[in-house]
Amino acid sequence: MGPGPANVDADVKESTSGAIHDRRPGGEGMSTDRRVAVVTGASRGIGKVCAQWLARAGYDVAITARTVNEGEEREHSSTLKKSNTKPLPGSLSATAALVEAEGRQALMVPADLTDFASLGAAMARVEERWGRIDVLVNNGRYIGPGHMDRMLDTPIDLLDKQIQANVLAIIVLCKLVLPGMIARGDGTIINITSGSGYSDPMKPAGDGGWGMGYGISKAAMQRIAGFLHVEHGNQGIKAYNVQPNLIATERIAADMAEFGVVGGAPADVIGAVVHWLVTSPDAEQWNGRNLEAQYLCHELKLLPGWDGPEPNAAPIRYDLSGAEMLRLENSRRAELGMAPIEQ
């Protein structure tokens, strides 16, 4: 993780530790009127647009990722078969500028999802500077080899890293922000999930599918929102799964064509859905549930000018186990004269 910039703008300064602090007038205040969002993986792609749309919704936004400045190099190849450290477009500095262009304040708190201590330090910095966290968007995920490799080719330590970043880091962050949210009686956690969490590829990684580490970690992530709703819904906590499907991000364009992953809906689709979740009273009906973001955006016309989702052409088999069990259960209940289970 590189050091923070000294010239992001005149109001953002670098401490001797390399952390970025908001020093604008009021930047260190803890006004109860301030609404604060945290977005992980915010240097590019879905995280970047979520930060921008949250700013439009009136939130000051703390953004975290590893890339602070444009041009930083780190491994982002999806396979063990080769290395790729060519800098990807995007950085926390660039996202901060987008947040500020919306008239809100940005706070850059670099962190690594596989380094839980860095997550704790990042959330502590947000609390120290702004006094609260009202919204957490868990968008960041593991980037690196093993994502598009087959099981026998993937070392256990790379599977472990994906579980750390895609599952345990989210739980760590939830445990850090929930006490404050519960104390205030209000808070929103949004997990950016994946259809791979409830489906199997019909081709192996490298031939149109994806690696097991990605699938199993996203499947575990899929369960978090439901538990948060059951355990804390009566304390004002809202938790949502937002399934983006294929989105046209900088990394998709740069890295994924060789694996047959191309195109996608504009990232603003997800930004618009996140904006709706934190502003519309109608969103609470989805608490603890999964939203298919592209279809919801299209149905509610949240992004004018977008024609809607393209049918999925990927070779994929959706897991219908829950729907089948519900059918069987209700069929048996009908035989016994019992009321059906309502979902």
Q: In the CATH scheme, what's the topology name?
A: Rossmann fold
- The protein's oligomeric status is single chain
Number of helices: 10
Distance between the termini: 45 Å
Computed over alpha carbons, the radius of gyration is 20 Å
Main β-sheet: number of strands, strand sense, barrel status? Answer: 7 strands, parallel
CATH superfamily: NAD(P)-binding Rossmann-like Domain
Counted up, domains total 1
Order of helices and strands: EEEHEHEHEHEEHHEEHEHEHEH
- Average per-residue pLDDT, rounded, comes to 88
Give the CATH level 1 class: Alpha Beta
Reported CATH architecture = 3-Layer(aba) Sandwich
Look at the helices and sheets and give the structural class. alpha/beta
Please provide a written account of the structure.
- The N terminus is likely disordered.
- It contains 10 helices and 13 strands.
- The protein is an alpha/beta fold and 343 residues long.
- It has a single domain, classed as 3-Layer(aba) Sandwich (Rossmann fold).
- Strand 3, helix 1 and strand 4 form a beta-alpha-beta unit.
- The longest helix has 29 residues.
- Helices cover 37% and strands 14% of the residues.
- A 7-stranded parallel beta sheet has the order 5-4-3-6-7-9-12, sandwiched between helices. The chain has a two-stranded antiparallel sheet with strand order 1-2.
- The N and C termini lie far apart (45 Å).
